[in-house]
Amino acid sequence: MAPPSPRIRRNGTTPKSSVTSASTASPPEPPSANSQIALLPTSLETLLLAIYPATLLLGSIFSIIDPTARNAPYNPVTQSHPPEVAPSYFAQKKNLFNVFFVKIAWFWVTLAFSLFLVLHPSTGPSRGLVLTPKRLRGFVRWGIITTWWALVTQWFFGPALIDRGFRITGGACELASTFEGTGGAREFVTGQACKSVGGLWKGGHDISGHVFILVLGSTFLGLEILPALVGARGLREERRITTRDGSVVMAERDISADDGQDADVKGGISAPLVVTGLSWWMLLMTATYFHTWFEKLTGLLVALAGIFVVYFLPRALPAMRDVIGMPGL
User: Fold this and answer.
1) Contact residues for 194 (Cβ-Cβ < 8 A; gap 6+)
2) Where does the chain have alpha helices with state H?
3) Which helix (H) or strand (E) is 173 found in, with range?
4) Which residues does 116 contact at the CB level (< 8 Å), separation at least 6?
């Protein structure tokens, strides 16, 4: 029996739904190539990610061309300008934004993300604390990112990865002579412990903790709310995922929950936007006044490594995607 002929409109065109000939379909790509395609960021995600190296570059250039910043004394041990000759208010470690925002940045990131999950209708009913699958997977992603933040900056079976990296590259705690002979300076295995007794944490490579936490937190929030910001249209047409049979398909996002919920949408997204915007500003200030370019670069790369595992790797691994999900899906 011959297949039915496609329906033809009066203007001579053929509806898309009726064109099913296999001869017009593109040949499937090898599974390995498919996995690589699924790992690639979309154009919007690429733009978001590009903001961070561009910001670090902008801050570094400004610190060179600005006479005040260029000529101000810089202490490589404290990785900052002496407070009495700081070229800007933001060049002082005790500025209010550093003390009350950056130093407790993960609290603000967690608060902003929690408000998004509770208030935005794309994650579930916004009029009650209902634990939907989307919210549960959102908290799982937050948990993984938080674990990465903690391992790098707080604890990794003892000293955090930042402190371990500093000591592996030759760093140590330099103490006054009054402490010598009481166990040795190298008993202080963290920068915080060293500085608490008046020591100098010096000699090794110190990843910029400010760059790490500001990039990690703001990228986490940005990728979570990006599907909601664009109304799902941009990402729905671009994000690719690898299925269990190895083929690559477009990730479709259900936007039915967004209809008629304008007030809740604004309320859910406002907090992440504020935290992300302030994080960008403090990242620019860090790039301008603190750390060497290599310390800032490694802070950026370590942050993006965690982002890759949570937001891009699951696109090529269906089993992992089943557990942690994807924003907006």
Assistant:
1) 173, 175, 188, 200, 201
2) 31-39, 43-65, 67-71, 96-97, 105-119, 133-153, 161-168, 191-196, 209-229, 233-238, 262-289, 293-311, 313-316, 318-324
3) strand 172-174
4) 123, 221, 224, 225, 268, 269, 271, 272
- Assess whether pLDDT exceeds 70 at residue 37: yes
CA dihedral 192, 163, 97, 268 (to 10 degrees): -120
Residue 259 token pair: 């209809």
Token duo for residue 317: 């691994």
C-alpha 313/C-alpha 46 separation (Å) is: 15
The answer on pLDDT for 146 being more than 80 is yes
Rg (CA), the chain: 25
**Least confidently predicted of 192-196, 207-211, 271-275:** 192-196
> Residue 310: pLDDT above 80?
yes
Closest CA to 153 of 142, 163, 143: 163
For residue 53, name the pLDDT band (cuts at 50, 70, 90).
Answer: very high
Find out whether 134 and 124 touch, Cβ atoms under 8 Å. Answer: yes
The DSSP bridge partners found for residue 75 are 80
| Local confidence band at 205 (pLDDT 50, 70, 90 cut-offs) | confident
Q: Record the tokens describing residue 155, joined without a space.
A: 């604890």
C-alpha–C-alpha distance, residues 243 and 246, integer Å:
5
Per-residue pLDDT tens over the stretch 209-240: 999 999 999 999 999 999 888 764 444 557 88
Torsions phi, psi for 325 (to 5 deg): 70, -170
Q: What angle do CA 261, 267, 269 make, to 5 degrees?
A: 100
Distance of alpha carbon 196 from alpha carbon 29, whole angstroms: 58
